[in-house]
Design brief:
Bound molecules: coenzyme A
Radius of gyration: 15 Å
Oligomer: single chain
CATH superfamily: Gcn5-related N-acetyltransferase (GNAT)
Helix content: 25-40%
CATH architecture: 3-Layer(aba) Sandwich
Number of strands: 7
Distance between the termini: 24 Å
C-alpha cells in the first residue's frame, strides 16, 4: 500500500469509486478543478487498485477537508484512518493549525469516524446540500494538529 498525491491519470478510477460510494458524488470536473486549483490530495493504492483518496485545501492556517472516500470493498479496515492521519500531518506541515469539514447530518458513520480523530461538532448549516429535500451540514473542526 502506498500513499501519493493524486495525479490526473488517477481520476478515471477515482470517479468510478466516487459514483459507487457516494450518494451525491463529485463529478469528473470537480476532481479536475480541485487539482487545477492546486489543492492538496492523497491517494492510497494497493498495487494498481485505488483504495481511497482525499482532497483538501490549505490556506494560511486553515485546512479544509473537501473529500475523503474509501472504496466500498476496503471500508472498515483502517484505510480511512490511514488517509486522514496523512491529511492531518500534511496540513500541519503546510502551516495549518485547524482542519475544517462539512458532513451530511445523516452520515453517522463519517461523523463517528471524525469524532474518533478528535473532530468537534461546531455548528449546523441549514439546507447546505442540494437535492430534494435539501440536507443540513454538520460543521466540524479539529485544532491542535
Ligand atoms: C467515512 C470513511 C472515509 C471511513 O473510512 P473507513 O476506512 O471505512 O474507516 P476506518 O476503517 O479507517 O475506521 C476508522 C474509525 O471510523 C469509525 N467507523 C468506521 N466505520 C464505521 C461504521 N460503519 N460505523 C461507525 N463507526 C465507524 C470507527 O470509529 C473506526 O475506528 P475503529 O476501527 O478503531 O473502531 C468511509 O467509510 C467512506 O468512504 N464512506 C463513504 C464516503 C463518505 O461518507 N465520506 C465522508 C464524507 S464527509
Amino acid at each position: 500500500m502506498e500513499l501519493h498525491p493524486v495525479s490526473y491519470s488517477d481520476l478515471d478510477q477515482i470517479t468510478r469509486i466516487e459514483k459507487e460510494t457516494n450518494e451525491y458524488p463529485w463529478n469528473p470536473n470537480n476532481f479536475e478543478s480541485s487539482l487545477d486549483a492546486g489543492n492538496s490530495s492523497i491517494v492510497l493504492k494497493d498495487r494498481t487498485n485505488i483504495v481511497g483518496y482525499a482532497f483538501f485545501s490549505v490556506i494560511g492556517t486553515d485546512s479544509h477537508l473537501l473529500n475523503i472516500t474509501i472504496s466500498k470493498d476496503y471500508q472498515g479496515r483502517g484505510f480511512g484512518k490511514k488517509i486522514l492521519k496523512k491529511v492531518l500531518l500534511q496540513s500541519k506541515v503546510l502551516g495549518a493549525t485547524i482542519v475544517f469539514l462539512e458532513v451530511r447530518v445523516s452520515n453517522f458513520r463519517a461523523i463517528s469516524f471524525y469524532e474518533k480523530f478528535g473532530f468537534k461538532r461546531d455548528a449546523i448549516r441549514y439546507n447546505y446540500y442540494a437535492g430534494s429535500p435539501k440536507e443540513d451540514a454538520l460543521l466540524m473542526s479539529k485544532q491542535g494538529l
